[in-house]
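This protein record is not my work; I was only asked to verify it. Would you go through it and say whether the fold makes sense for this chain? Here is the record exactly as it was handed to me.
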Amino acid sequence: MVDDVEGLRIEVYRTLQLAGLPLSDLPSTPVSAGGGVDVVESRELAAVIVGWACSAELLKQAADAIDREEDEHPDVQLQDETEAAMAAAIDRVLRRRGFVTRVRADVPGSHQLVVTRRDSD
């Protein structure tokens, strides 16, 4: 269990920044011009949640397609595939730096990662 979730969030944030990934400072507001990594504390999970947020434009287009019940629309597929690919890349970066990660299981279909600690902790 993580005692200092904020400290873990800062370590994760700095690691992703060091790797050159664009970061979103506001978890609910993805980087509008492109995408960005959200790094958010979860006291309930005693962890940090990390995930890729696609551009605001793609998120809107995918949401509109889902509202029309077009789950196989190219925009929906692009969002899902992008989030999956970025999650895999982010996972490799974090594990290389010694973080313990797992896919977020409490949100079906999520590509977010749960970071619980560093291996040395």
